[in-house]
Amino acid sequence: MNPAQTIAQQFLQQYYQTLMTNKMGLIQFYTDASHMTYGGQQHDGIKQINEKLESLAFQKIVYKIDDMDVQPGALENSLFIFVTGQLQMDDAETYKFSQSFQILPNGQGGLYVHNDIFRLVY
C-alpha cells in the first residue's frame, strides 16, 4: 500500500467512525473554505455545512466501505478520494452510496475536507 492509500484509509476510518458515533463531530473536518454537495444540493463554508449536518434526521447510521480509489491532488500533500459503499440508517433498508473527497493541507500539519460530494445510488 502506498503512502497516499494509507493516509486515505486513515482519513476514511476517522471520518465514517465520527459520522456513526457523533455526526455533529464531522464539522471538525471542514473549514470556511469547504464545499459539500449532498444529493445534488451544495453547501458552502462551515455555517451551511453545519446546518446540513444538523438536518440529517437519522439517529443511527452504519457505513460499510466496499471500495476506495485515491489519487494525489493538485497541491502538495493533497488527495482526491473516491468511495463506494453501503449505509443503513436507523436499522432500515441498506442503500448504496458514492462519495468523493478532496482533502487539502490545513496549514497546521493536518488535512481538511475542501470538497465533499455525496450521493445515494438507487
TrEMBL record:
Gene Ontology terms describing biological process: mRNA transport; protein import into nucleus
Cytoplasm recorded as keyword: yes
Signal peptide extent: none
GO cellular component: cytoplasm; nuclear envelope
Domain NTF2, first and last residues per copy: 7-120
Role of this protein: Has a role in nuclear-cytoplasmic transport of proteins and mRNAs.
Entry protein name: Nuclear transport factor 2
Protein source organism: Paramecium primaurelia
